[in-house]
Amino acid sequence: MPDFSQGDDAVAVNALRSAVMRLSRRLKHQRVDESLSPTEMSVLGTLARCGRATPGELARKEHVQPPSMTRIVALLESKGLVRLEPHPDDRRQKVVTQTEQAEAMLEESRRKRNVFLASLAEGLDEDEWAKLRAAAPVLEKLAHV
Question: Model-level pTM?
Fold first, then answer.
């Protein structure tokens, strides 16, 4: 296993961190709905990827405290982006489901961000583009560890 704390591996880790953070910030500016915070958008993205979930499950997935998630869900519900439904097995809990409005907004957001990334990728040569395509699954794996 490489030693990520020294030498070329440390330089590569530093460069990767810096590039990912910079690209992430640029992508965040490609939002469709400026009234939603990045955390609110992330919650909608989690619901899109994972399906319906309780607020507690969402809090764990988003790495926030349950009371914070309760506030986020209430805000999203007030904007018509999620709905709360009774839990099928536990009457004390609710299940959060995204609405069609949220699905459409997320689709438009993905489209806008994909267009932005594609415009950046136009500046790459074939070899760079091939390397980036090959790295995409590895970056996806790192994002979901």
Answer: 0.76
Residues 56 and 115 in one domain: yes
Residue 40 is part of which domain span? Answer: 31-143
Q: What is the pLDDT of residues 44-78, one digit of tens each?
A: 999 999 999 999 999 999 999 999 999 999 999 99
- 94: helix, strand or coil: strand
Kind of pairing between the strands at 94-98 and 82-86 = antiparallel
Q: Are the CB atoms for 55 and 73 separated by under 8 Å? A: yes
Question: What is the CATH classification number for the domain harbouring 45?
Answer: 1.10.10.10
User: How far is 67 from 64, CA to CA, in rounded Å?
Assistant: 8
Q: Are 75 and 40 in contact (CB under 8 A)?
A: yes
Number of domains in the chain: 2
**What are the Cα distances from residue 109, in Å, to 12, 70, 117, 132?**
30, 24, 12, 22
Rounded Cα distance, 101 and 142, in Å: 30
Same domain, 90 and 128: yes
